[in-house]
Amino acid sequence: MNTIILRGSITAQTPIAYSLPGLDASRTELPKPLPRFKKVDAEGQLAEHLYIPSSGLSGVLRRACADTFIERAKVLHDTPTPLSLDELRLAWVGGVGKSGKVNQDQLASALLGLPHWLKVNPILELFGAGAAGVLHFVAGKIMIENAVSTTALRPIILGQGVRSRDFTRQPERLALLSEEQYDEYLISADAANLKSRYKTQAKELRKKIMPAAIKANNLSDEEVREIKEQADSLDADSKDIETMTDLLPLSGFEAIPQGAQFSHRMILRQVSDVGVGVLLLGLDRFAKDGAFVGGHRKLGCGQISGSYSVIKVVNGQEECLGTVNFNGFTGAELSEGLEQYRAAAQHILDAGEFDLSLPTK
């Protein structure tokens, strides 16, 4: 068994954008903000950095490793659907938990088979699972850290603008509409104008019953009540009008700037040669698929590259085994010292000596 450290850096080849669960609920600023990572700098000051979350990196690497085996399983079983839904969920996300109490006696018995499942399922060995059939929770042997910017960075703003009105900008597109569709378009356009007019009128009426305006115009309580009722009626009417907004403002989002450098580390503890090789194969597949993380990819975001030194820890001493570098679409390049690990993983792939099924006993 090996303790391996991959220590190196990640570079943003394009801007990177992402969000984390709960962020929108706790922060309502526009454009949508990136979360920040705070750490103590060399001067002992707390500095704010941008970062790529470990959860996102772990997710893309797990799926890349799993897909490597799923593609081989398609060939071995001569079917495009070699795994069940639960088996796919186990491979990609560590399973989906089900409600109900865990029978501790059954769990204790099932755990006797854990060494077997870790040997035949390298995805389970590396990344673990939250719902691995009768095994329930299985701890993974890889630790993937956040990739933190090497310098304090400010995010850039992308995606701001306005969704245009296609028929106004290019009237010739009206020829694509049938007579009924054209009538529907005119009604929706008129409705939008009417809705806007009602809201504007209601706003002007409410200005008339502001305290200063009431006093200046010497309005009676009855007059104030009538004006308020008119404004309320206009507001209600505007809400009843259904429109399709095609001039929707796009508030944009914060993104990590292109060219940003991040320090990064992954640690594999007590993992087999096959497990190390599977990670290297997964990095290669991830890179050949483009090496994308995060969201807003249709706007050109999310591509990264990386470079790591691969270090083996023996009796507290570090021994450099080699390097691995990856770039989008070209794959991962391994130095000669890592070939034995890649070959170990490739052997079980070629021989079909793996089992991604859901542990049942």
Structure commentary:
This protein is α+β, with helices and mostly antiparallel strands. Helices cover 41% and strands 22% of the residues. The protein has twelve helices and twelve strands. It has helices at 23-26, 54-77, 85-93, 104-110, 114-120, 122-127, 166-169, 179-208, 211-217, 221-240, 273-288, 339-351; strands spanning 2-12, 37-40, 46-49, 51-52, 142-144, 147-149, 156-162, 249-255, 261-271, 304-314, 317-327, 331-334. The strands form three sheets. Strands 1, 4, 5, 6, 9, 10, 11 and 12 form an eight-stranded antiparallel beta sheet that branches. Strands 2-3 form a two-stranded antiparallel sheet. It has a two-stranded antiparallel ribbon with strand order 7-8. Helix 2 crosses helix 11 (273-288) and helix 11 crosses helix 12 (339-351). The mean pLDDT is 89.
Task: Describe the structure concisely.
The protein is 41% helix and 22% strand. The chain is built from 12 helices and 12 strands.
Q: Secondary-structure element order, as H and E?
A: EHEEEHHHHHEEEHHHHEEHEEEH
Q: The biggest beta sheet, please?
A: 8 strands, antiparallel
Amount of helix: 40-55%
Count of helical stretches: 12
**Spans where pLDDT lies below 50 across 5 or more residues:** none
> SS-based structural class?
alpha+beta
Beta-strand percentage range: 15-25%
According to DSSP, the number of beta strands is: 12
Rg is 29 Å
The geometry reads as elongated
Mean pLDDT, as a whole number? 89
Question: What separation lies between the terminal Cα atoms?
Answer: 25 Å
